[in-house]
Amino acid sequence: MSSQPPDGQGLADIGEAALEGPVSPDPASWARRLTFRSGLLVFFRVVDIGVNAVTTVLVARLLGPLEFGALGFATAAAVLVYTLTDFGLTRAFVHQIASGDNVPSSLTTYFAVRIPLLIVSGLATLVLATLAPAFLGLGTAGIDLLAIMFVVGSLRALASFGQVTLEAQQRVLASQTVVFAYSLSFALLVPAAAWRLPNATSVALASLVPSVLGLAVALWHLQRIGFGRPQRALSRRYFGFALPLVGASVAGGIGEYIDKFLLQVSFGSLAMGYYTAAQRLVGPLAAPWGAVGNFLLASVVRGRRAGDPKDVVTSVRGVEKLASLLLAILVAPLVVDSDGFVTLVFGEPYRPAALAVSLLSFRMWTDTTNLSGMALALGAGRARAYGNISMAMSGLFVLLALLIVPPPSFFFLSRGWGLDGAAACSAIVGLFALLTTEFLVTRTYQVAPRSWPFACLAVAIFGAFCARQWTGAAPDVLRIAIEVGVGCLLLGLLYVVTDHFKRRGPDGASS
């Protein structure tokens, strides 16, 4: 295993050492470090979101809904291939190195398995695109577009793995250099390509350079950790944890893609453009919390080794309390006033995406609220149970999508709700996934289910709805600002009141 000599330690290494620290059996100390590191990840990801949000808006406006839809569908196909070839390996890797396994050997094992899977699946994707470009509604240009986006997706998948590895080792600052290397170069090159030649293929080509740069930075950090020989005993433990998640990975990939496939085939790239815009508007809001997911998993594994599992749940939920307030403040205006958001950000041509934005905002809330449940369940070794839940939710999503999205000419029981139907399926499945994972956590740790995130969302939506009724004729920017302000006020009152009653003992006296 390679390491940096003590006399060559730079400021970044000193910062990483300060962030890492030993695992402490003291729950309060562990909770403070968890909060601090999670906050750092959220802060860095918020900066990254700002850059990507501006880039997305520029590209969507320059391309228009039709070309933006073609790009969105090709991107979704690349993400599907990445998901199908993950097989639960990334989460298994995080779990194993957090449990104390040899990191260089684990790195070598991961790359030895993942790269061949990506190559084989990429060739299969190109064969499919060659055989059925007209069926996918992309035309002959769709073959080139899919090929480029698959290469981009594969490079991003490997770079993302490097980032996850660093986060699992608590190297927060190093992990974010991977993110910024990609995001900043993407923000400079991609809008310029869309402005010079406004079509999906030119944008896809321009995104190759940031993907290569992000992977190069990730590999530079990983070589400092070192690559070792795979160990047979380590491989058995590694794949033993991953196997229960294989079905969940495959089913999840199909479930995440089926709505886009049905939209593209049944309604064309225009509907896909609206759906992509809705997802790109909502998605960045989930990114700060999504960045914490794998970090929380590693922290839960370490926390369970160091102390009482119930203390781990208490610490994780303590971190969540303020996060639930911030998430509700962001989601409520999107649910209530999606029409104003869509026209303000993307312009009038994207107005048909308004209802989809409301429904996908709720899905974003359920997925984000569910991140801690995922970390607590997998951290306790409940990979099989969590995998079964994921497969069941993916199956439910596929069934609902087939019944709701396409017209009856595609499937005789379908309702033909198209864009809004796809978003509704996503929202319903997200709620079921949250409730079932919450049930798994309560059974595993013998704790009460959470009510705080649901209360925060209900109060914030009520405040945003009242503000919308009072300021309906106001300009979009002013109206949305008032909705956010009213939500902050009501949630602040909720926090103060609940904290007051929490501090009072059962007999009514202050504790």
Account of the protein in words:
The chain is an all-alpha fold. The chain has 18 helices and no strands. The chain has helices at 11-20, 27-84, 89-98, 103-131, 141-168, 172-196, 200-206, 208-225, 232-290, 293-306, 309-336, 338-345, 354-369, 371-379, 383-404, 418-445, 452-470, 476-503. Helix 2 packs across helix 9 and helix 3 packs parallel to helix 10 (293-306).
Kindly state the number of beta strands.
Answer: 0
The profile of the biggest β sheet is:
none
Low-confidence stretches: 1-25
- Class from helix and strand fractions: mainly alpha
- Element string (H = helix, E = strand): HHHHHHHHHHHHHHHHHH
Alpha-carbon Rg, integer = 23 Å
Overall pLDDT level = 77
The first-to-last residue Cα distance is 51 Å
Number of helices: 18
Estimated share of beta-strand residues:
under 5%
Coarse morphology: globular
> What level of helicity do the residues show?
over 70%
Summarize this structure as a short list of keywords or feature phrases.
511 residues, mainly alpha
What's the gist of this structure?
This protein has 511 residues and is mainly alpha-helical. It is 81% helix and 0% strand. The chain has 18 helices and no strands.
Ordered list of secondary-structure elements with their pairings:
Blueprint: H1 11-20, H2 27-84, H3 89-98, H4 103-131, H5 141-168, H6 172-196, H7 200-206, H8 208-225, H9 232-290, H10 293-306, H11 309-336, H12 338-345, H13 354-369, H14 371-379, H15 383-404, H16 418-445, H17 452-470, H18 476-503
Helix pairs in contact: 2-5, 2-6, 2-7, 2-9, 2-10, 2-11, 3-4, 3-5, 3-9, 3-10, 4-5, 5-6, 5-7, 5-8, 6-7, 6-8, 9-13, 9-15, 9-16, 10-11, 10-14, 11-13, 11-17, 11-18, 12-13, 13-16, 14-16, 15-16, 17-18
